[in-house]
Amino acid sequence: MGKERDGSPVPDEVWEEFLRTSAEGTGDAPQEPSARAREEAARRRTAPPEPAPWRAPTSAPVRPRRRKGWYVAGFAAALALLFVAVDPGGFIGWSGDGDRPGPPLAQETERPTEAPPAEGDGRATLADPFRGSPAARWASGTAGVTVPAARAVGWMTKEEVAGALTRTRDFLAASGLDPAVLRGARPERAIALMNPRQEDARAFVSTALGTPGEGHDPLMLFSRFDPAQARLVGDEVRTRGRLSYREGSLGALEVTADVTYVYPVAPAGGGDEVVRVIVRRETVVSWDDPAKVATEKGTFTLLSYKLDMTNGGCGEPTGYFRPQFGGGAPETGANGRTIDPYARTAPVAEGGTRAGCATATRS
């Protein structure tokens, strides 16, 4: 404690500062505290002051710094980029009225070893006719048909093999994807690619299209719907399959086409009910050497054809697919056979499902 003057003690720190600055002779040395100041200091030591009451600010409030907002926006943008990098096909775990499909599948280059997984329970609609189907991730039209690289085979050069593979795919488009043919028109472009000198094949096509029946069903080769019974939904047919080839008889190029087609259809009279007709064809053709086989340039000889289909009708052949509407189960045959129409793990069975039909495990 500093010395006392007028009976009032002076705080030590104040007194020491006074002595120091006085000794140094600075012009701004503190003055000796007055008696009133000493009294106030003594009062504060014995009774600290009451806290001052809160007052509303009289000036404008301080604006928040914007830098924090930029940090938040930048963090959100970084999260968005992370989601795109990790899940480019869509949001992880997204679900709604039917699961969102994943990214498109890579082309099929060989026979798969397992059936495609389920794609959710969403029902097909006019706006989304492939919802809930593995075909939601398939390509459209001929883009879903893999054409292998060409090499010289038998009597054909590499370039000729490439041309034959392209024309084989053209046949698939003309027989299973042509919009006019799907609406019931005669498949003229497809027929033009068939060897006109192959009498048995020409007779089959003529009879099947003119008077379809057992043993003469045009659906074995061509996809057609009766426009009075069903209409196609949208402008897409989803496909999955591939071409393969080898050297055949007499040095011919033998090509096998194994393709599954998914057709979404609705009742011809209107309404929003959508069902799918699923068709798998395995067709083998031969591009023969004209010097050895009676044929025409640019045409193939038909060797074999097999068909699996679901929800296309199981009654007497009419020349058209006849899907079942009204919410009932698709018409089935009496053999009790069931198939997964999306499975492509085995060849099409001899006779296919047209000879008795089968019940589909999914649509």
What does this structure look like?
- It is a single chain.
- The chain is an alpha+beta fold and 363 residues long.
- The chain folds into 2 domains: 10-42, no CATH class; 134-360, no CATH class.
- The chain is 23% helix and 17% strand.
- The chain has helices spanning 12-24, 35-46, 67-86, 158-176, 179-182, 188-192, 199-210, and strands spanning 4-5, 8-9, 139-140, 145-146, 230-232, 238-247, 253-267, 275-287, 301-310, 338-339, 359-360.
- Strands 3, 4, 5, 6, 7, 8 and 9 form a 7-stranded mixed β-sheet that branches.
- Strand 6 and strand 7 form a beta hairpin.
- The longest helix has 20 residues, at 67-86.
- It is globular, with a radius of gyration of 42 Å.
- The termini are far apart.
- Mean pLDDT is 80; it is low at 1-8, 49-73 and 75-98.
In short:
The chain has 363 residues and is an alpha+beta fold. The chain has 7 helices and 11 strands. Helices cover 23% and strands 17% of the residues.
Q: Which parts are unreliable, with pLDDT below 50 for 5 consecutive residues or more?
A: 1-8, 49-73, 75-98
N-to-C CA distance: 98 Å
Task: Please state the oligomeric state of the protein chains shown.
Answer: single chain
Query: What percent strand?
Result: 15-25%
Query: Helicity level, as a percent range?
Result: 10-25%
Helix-and-strand structural type: alpha+beta
- Domain count: 2
How many strands appear in the DSSP assignment? 11
List the helices and strands and how they pair.
Elements: E1 4-5, E2 8-9, H1 12-24, H2 35-46, H3 67-86, E3 139-140, E4 145-146, H4 158-176, H5 179-182, H6 188-192, H7 199-210, E5 230-232, E6 238-247, E7 253-267, E8 275-287, E9 301-310, E10 338-339, E11 359-360
Parallel strand pairs: 4-6, 10-11
Antiparallel strand pairs: 1-2, 3-6, 5-7, 6-7, 7-8, 8-9
